[in-house]
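Memo to structure team: turn this sequence into structure tokens by end of day. - J.P.
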Amino acid sequence: MSEDADEVASALLVGVSALIRRVRQVPVEGGLTMPERNALSGLERSGPTTSSALAREAQITAQAMGATLGSLRAKGLVDRGPDPDDGRRVVLEVTDAGRQALKDKRNARSELVARVLASGAFTPEELEQLGVAAPLLERLAQHI
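Reply from structure team:
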């Protein structure tokens, strides 16, 4: 690997990590805590699954995941039902309200970034560069 590729990789990881960390730290409307959002997103990605499977995926205890899922159920964002393959087990799935809550949270974050981009903190040329870089970053992610 060339030294240029190493430098670009390091710079990208620093910049993208800082952006993601900061966007996640800024509170947005929606009423979901970070653990709730992570659990709901994981459940949306995986489809109907068990609490213990979600806990393993998130690398947290089953008890912590159970408490988070209980909160999501109380808010009507997650439903539980019998496993179609094994009626003794319970599977959880995201409700329509849960999907909407995730969509609202994502939209709020996109609006936050858009406000900063439109605030004058970036020149038109820099905005164009960011627009060109976005699909490249997505392609990079797909190849990792």
